[in-house]
Amino acid sequence: MKIGVLGTGMVGTTLATRLVGLGHDVMLASRDGRSEAAANWLAEQAGGAATGSFAEAARHGEVIILAVRGDAALAAIAASGPDRLAGKVLLNISNPLDFSQGFPPRMIPELSNTTSLSEAVQAAAPAARVVNSLNTMNAALMVNPDALAGAHDVFVCGDDEAAKEVVAGLLGEFGWTAPVDLGPLRAARGTEGMMPVWLALFGRLGHANFNYRINIGAKP
Ligand SMILES: NC(=O)c1ccc[n+]([C@@H]2O[C@H](COP(=O)([O-])OP(=O)(O)OC[C@H]3O[C@@H](n4cnc5c(N)ncnc54)[C@H](OP(=O)(O)O)[C@@H]3O)[C@@H](O)[C@H]2O)c1
Questions:
Q1: Which residue in 75, 76, 192, 205 has its CB near the most CB atoms, within 10 A?
Q2: Number of domains in the chain
Q3: Which of 24, 21, 28, 63 has its CA nearest to residue 42?
């Protein structure tokens, strides 16, 4: 599958590497299309890989993955060109975090609580089929759930059921067998809102090798 990955940080490069390894045709995108991080990533890939600008990756991909700084996500959508995203599955992994005051970051008020970054991305690219997933864990676990012993979960939400199935297919390729479907995209208010808990645990443990687990019992 042709996949455009917007973002050259830990998430973008980790996902792009795994997707190339799985045989996908991946373009990793930075703002100017020539970032050092993207060039370093490309140098490590055997084949099935390219780099480009956000607009070029938006054109390239049948599926687009958005993994940029939360406060830059809407700028990345604007640079991609909402028209190029029309009809495409757009998986948002970005969280609405503001690191400008240091660590721990705060949730960006206008992108949380009564809305979410994923919903803002959908509003900015109305014809895209936005799905939110994978944002509740460290990048290494996203593509390799077996790295953490025991059962643990990935969430998925979105308004387009077929788009969610496409994302579930990719999750399956990573090793996720049963994503927890939270329903419509507004559920991203919850998954993105899990960040303060994740950050508190990260601060206590001093590492990121942990994840959430949902146990669902019979209806009482
Ligand atoms: N790190 C994790 O394990 C993890 C886990 C879950 C969720 N997340 C979320 O995933 C997203 C990506 O995280 P990350 O750690 O991989 O990388 P990051 O450092 O948060 O983001 C790097 C990307 O943001 C882009 N960027 C920075 N300023 C920008 C601007 N003004 N306009 C447009 N793009 C801009 C950079 O573009 P250039 O390439 O041009 O420099 C780069 O591609 C974040 O929203 C984060 O909260 C991260």
A1: 192
A2: 1
A3: 28
Each residue's pLDDT tens digit, 172-187: 999 999 999 999 999 9
**Whether the predicted pLDDT of 47 surpasses 90:** no
CB atoms within 10 A of CB 165: 13
> 0.85 cut: is pTM over it?
yes
- Are residues 164 and 131 in contact, defined by beta-carbon separation less than 8 angstroms? yes
**Alpha carbon distance 60, 58 (integer Å):** 6
7 pocket-lining for ligand 1 (C-beta < 6 Å): yes
Which domain range does residue 32 map to? 2-205
Q: Report d(CA 188, CA 87) in Å as an integer.
A: 20
* Cβ contact 86:65 at 8 Å: no
- Between the CA of 180 and the centroid of ligand 1 the distance, in Å, is 25
Place of tokens 């060039």: 39
CATH number of the domain to which 181 belongs: 3.40.50.720
